[in-house]
Amino acid sequence: MATLMKNPRIFTVFLLILVLGDLSSNAEAKAFFVFGDSLVDNGNNNYLVTTARADAPPYGIDYPSHRPTGRFSNGLNIPDIISETNGWEPTLPYLSPELTGQKLLVGANFASAGVGVLNDTGIQFVNIIRIFQQLNLFRQYQQRLSEVIGKEETDKVVKDSLVLITLGGNDFVNNYFLVPFSIRSQQYSLEDYVPFVISEYKKVLQRLYHLGARRVLVTGTGPLGCVPAELAQHSRNGECAVELMKAAALFNPQLVQMLDQLNRKLGANVFIAANTNQMHLDFISNPQQFGFVTSKIACCGQGPYNGLGLCTPLSNLCRNRDAYVFWDPFHPSERANRLIVQQILTGSNTYMHPMNLSTILAMDSRV
């Protein structure tokens, strides 16, 4: 140990090996990287000047600290629950000043509320980390980690990691359908817009692969027309908004087809499709079966279905968040997120294609 102490770099690497060894006593510890939008953002937008933020009560009311964290949830979001279930340390937002030294080995969350596949999605939020910027930060992260453990070890950490990416919903809700006669809806019919978004998404995933990712969970969009925000604007009797449901019905199968094409080209199951659309539809079609009281009314909000505006300290707030599929006008409650993660982990081919996360982790642990 005295010899190690004399060489700070060797000692740092030694400490990091100890950390990884301690983590690996859980479910074969991996670094975990998260990209995408508000469904998976865990606080990056807190560090940005933007209106797309969740840093005020009652957000975080059921988080362990009972304080807002920047997550668009009453508590934990999907990446948190994936980490928790596997016994991994939760990832920190990449912009957090706490993400230094050995904490880099845990991974990082690059997601930013409001972003989409397309660069013009979410322009109304001004200062958000667009997906190409998130990938640039991932490259920067690798450079930072290389300074601590060297390039060879960094490449291995990334290669052995798990990646989650959640994009697409905002390209419809906050772009194509944002306003009547939006620029994109003037340029494209919906039937032509979806393949355009898919083709751009393919470029994002190819870049992610080029940056070293080899296990990537890709979630589809949920049933966009069924969220309380859309019900408040378009629904008279609780029926889902037709055009947005059509968008989801077009987008999700084409996303799976694109992932299959990439995997065939690469000769490996790099990209795993999570059918979050069907997972949500299960709740919506029969909320009581899953222990929910409602799948139409948000816990926090105002107006019809609590779907107008933002969730704020002045909003209506339900007492039992576990009884609601939706926490706010757009985002699932923690309990809904937990059920989604359960399907990601153990779901059949209806929900996970070509395999679920538990199968992936078991396979990787034998390598």
From TrEMBL:
Protein's name according to its UniProt entry = GDSL esterase/lipase-like protein isoform X2
Q: Which Pfam families match?
A: Lipase_GDSL
Signal peptide segment: 1-29
GO MF entries? hydrolase activity
Family, according to the entry, reads as follows: Belongs to the 'GDSL' lipolytic enzyme family.
Q: Which Gene3D superfamilies match?
A: SGNH hydrolase
The UniProt keywords, alphabetically, are: Hydrolase, Lipid degradation, Lipid metabolism, Signal
Determine if Hydrolase is one of this entry's keywords. yes
